[in-house]
Protein: 3-isopropylmalate dehydrogenase
Amino acid sequence: MTGKIVLLPGDGIGAEVIYAAKDVLEAITKKYNKPFEFSSYDIGGVAIDNHNTPLPDETVKACKNADAVLLGAVGGPKWDNNPSDLRPERGLLGIRKALDLYANLRPVKGFKKLLHASPLKEEIIQGSDLLIVRELTGGLYFGQPSERFDNGNAVVDTLAYTRKEMERIIDKAFQSAELRNKQLTSVDKANVLESSKLWREIVEEKKADYPNVTVDHVLVDAAAMKLITNPTQFDVIVTENMFGDILSDEASVLTGSLGMLPSASLAEDGVGLYEPAHGSAPDIAGKGIANPIAMILSAAMMLRYSFNMNEEAQAIEDAVEKIVNQNYYTADLKNDNGELVNTTEMTQLIVDAI
Ligand code: NAD
Ligand code: IPM
Ligand code: MN
Structure:
């Protein structure tokens, strides 16, 4: 059976790294005789330019009919002053909502060889291996009203969640913890926010369903601090949409670069979308120097979650680790004695290692 994969390259380095993932998947096809069929659709800024909307209907339709979706990144200075509904980011939020991708899994595991690439002390980050489970289709990003009033002199954004929306992401996090080290940290702001109070209640209720998992609650401000002062205390972190967005970029520092952090955005039942945690990186776009590893590892997550191809996913992860261990690195990773390579060279090294 041929796996139907929709590619959404998007903008900036998104369009550069997505072809790295495609090359790697083609290497998997050759080695394991697993055919994939690729088609590409516009999203984000490029879709605004070509179709006057960040999320054309045909893009949504193609994603719904696919077995899995790979997304690069969206956004860039060209569209930064557009009205809200004509911003590239709206396309990304729209596709997440349209596919009901409520669960964003962001694994944060550094490679030993890259310990020195982090500005944090090696003894602090050594052995850190955590998973951020971020709610992706609710909270401040989607609540209404979200607008200006009083002639533009006042604003409102709405942080809204239903119990059901909280329950499903919290269940997902407990289930993820059961498959890992059985330790769940729920991050909230229950000392202030009503939404966090309900969140915390639900986590407490759910404990009974997952007796093997130990649970603690940490306020988000303290969590931000603990993440970089004592990251090995965490196994699975579960949190709402915006807290998860911020904490995951912070956590990428443990791995040496945001360019190392993959993610899976999953629905309850339906197509999954796989996207690096990073953005379109306008500061390096067009230079061919972006780190493709976050995107390549996202493709490995796709094989695992959408195609149940565990061996093939592992082959990609092993190839990445091998090349990193051989001391090849892209410009975002600090390395004093390795060999600096660009996006294409890094991709080719990983392809050859498969
Ligand atoms: P960013 O993630 O694009 O970049 C932050 C920094 O990390 C930059 O210095 C960039 O060069 C570096 N970086 C990121 N990925 C890298 C990689 N693979 N290799 C090497 N270096 C990398 O965040 P930003 O600059 O705040 O945002 C830029 C644009 O991207 C904005 O329009 C934003 O809305 C958008 N964005 C999109 C997504 C997405 O599509 N999923 C995610 C985040 C930001
Ligand atoms: C991410 C990004 C997006 C988010 C933006 C571009 C809407 O930062 O995927 O982490 O905040 O979810
Ligand atoms: Mn983000």
In short: The domain at 1-105+261-354 is CATH 3.40.718.10 (Isopropylmalate Dehydrogenase). The chain has two domains: 1-105+261-354, 119-255. The pocket of 3-isopropylmalic acid (ligand 2) is lined by residues 75, 89, 92-93, 245, 277, 279 (CB under 6 Å).
